[in-house]
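Hi Y.,

Following your request, here is the sequence exactly as I used it, all 467 residues.
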Amino acid sequence: MTSTPQCAAIYARISHDSDGNAAGVGRQLDDCRKLAASLGWAVVDEYVDNDISAYSGRRRPEYQRLLDDLADGTVDAVLVYHLDRLTRRPIELEQFLAVLDAAKVRHVRFVTGHSDITTGDGLLVVRMLAAVAANESASKSRRVARKHEQDAIEGIPHRGSTRPYGYRSDFVTIDPDEAAMFRAIIERVLAGESTRSIAAWLNEEQYPTVKGSEWRTSTLRGMLINPRYAGLRVHRGQIVGAGQWEPIISEETHRKILAAFAERASSGRRAPQRYLLSGLLRCGRCENRLFSSPRASRRRYVCLSGPDHGGCGRLTVTAEPLEDLIAQAVLYRLDSPELADAMTGRNSSDTRTRDLTAELEAATERRDELAKAYGDGAISMSEWLTARRPIEASIEQHTRALARLTRTTALTGLVGNGHQLRASWATLNLDRQHAIVKAVLDHAVIAPGRAGVHTVELDRVQPIWRS
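Below is the corresponding structure, written out as C-alpha cells. Let me know if you'd prefer a different format.
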C-alpha cells in the first residue's frame, strides 16, 4: 500500500428519495467522514447523486465528475458507504476499476462490506458483490414491473411524482375548480380553438399548471389526449381497462378530442395567424384558392399563379372589409330559419353518432373483458396482446369516423343567438371566430373588383353555406 492519500473523495448515492430531504445520502456522508477521520485521510470533495438509480443506466452527474477527477489526478482516494452505492452493474464496476488503474489510484475503502481491491482475492470479492447487487436489482425490477402490470389491470391509479391536473394529491379525488377548467378547455378545443391559443389564454389569465409554471402547447395537448381523464387506465401506452377513479369527461368526449386532433394532423390545418378567412375563399376567375399575402401595412387575399399555387394571379381583395362583410353575414345567418333547418337536417347524423358510440362501447367492453381474463389468469400475455390488436384497431377506426362530427360543436348554443354574439364578436380570439365562420360557411367565391378600390362591394361576394 502506498502513502496516506492527501486528496480523498467521498461518494454517496441513493436510488429513491421519497421525502426529498436527502436524509439517506446524508447518513452515508456522515459515516464516510468518520471513516476518513479514523484513517487520517484528508477529504477534499464530496460527490452526491441523490434519487438516482445505479442499475437503470441513467447518467449520474456526480459519479461522472468523480471519474473525471480521478482521471485528472484531482483526487487520489475514494470512500463509499457500500459497493452497491457505487455501482450495481458489473460492466460499470469494470469501467471504474479501469479508471483507477489508469490513474494509479489504490486507495478505495467502504464503510461496510470491507473489500481490498489491491489484491486478487479482494477484486474477486468485489466482482462477486457487484454481480449479486445486479441480480438483486434485476429481480426487484421484475417484481416492480409485475406489480405495476397487475395494478393497471385492476385499475389502480399510477402515482408519479406529480399529480394529474384536475385531481388532488391522492390522484383520485377530483378538484372541482381544475376539473371545471379542464372541461372548459375541452369545449374550446372541440369548438375549433388551437392549443396554442388556449395556452396563451391560460397564461394571460394566470391559471397555473400543477407545478405552478406557465402552460405550453405540448403540455396542454398531452393532458387533453390522456385517457385517464375519461376514467381509463393506461399501461405502457395502452388502455387496459377502467380506472378506480371518477372521470372528469366521458369516453365519448375523449374520443371526440382524439378525433379532432387526428383530423387536424391528417389535414395539416394550422390555426389562423392573422387571417380570419384562411382556406375559405375562392377566386371568381379561375376558382383557385385565395392565399393571404400582406403588402406593407395592408392585409390581402390573393390568387397566386405559379407551379406551387396554380391560380390565375389576376385577383386581389383587401382583407379587412371582406372579413367584416362575411362575419356580419355569418352572424345574420345564425339567426336565419335556413340555418335552423340545415342544422336539423345535419342533426340527422345523430343516428350515426349513436351507432358509432354503441360500437365503440361494445369494443371497449370487449377490451375490458379481455383484460379481466388476463388478470384472472385465464389467458397468457401473448394471447391478450394478440386478441387486443383487432379491438384497438376497431376503436381507432370508429374514432376517426367521428372526426366530421366535431366540426358542428362550434355552433353549440349559437344558432338563433347571432344578435347576442354580434355584441361580443370582437372579444373572441381569431381561432374561435374562424371556427364559427367555418362551421357555417363552406367557402366564398370572390368576383373581380375595380382596380385601385380597397372596399368590397356586396355583389363581389358569393357565400356558399354549409348544408
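The first helix runs from residue 23 to 39.

Thanks again,
Q.
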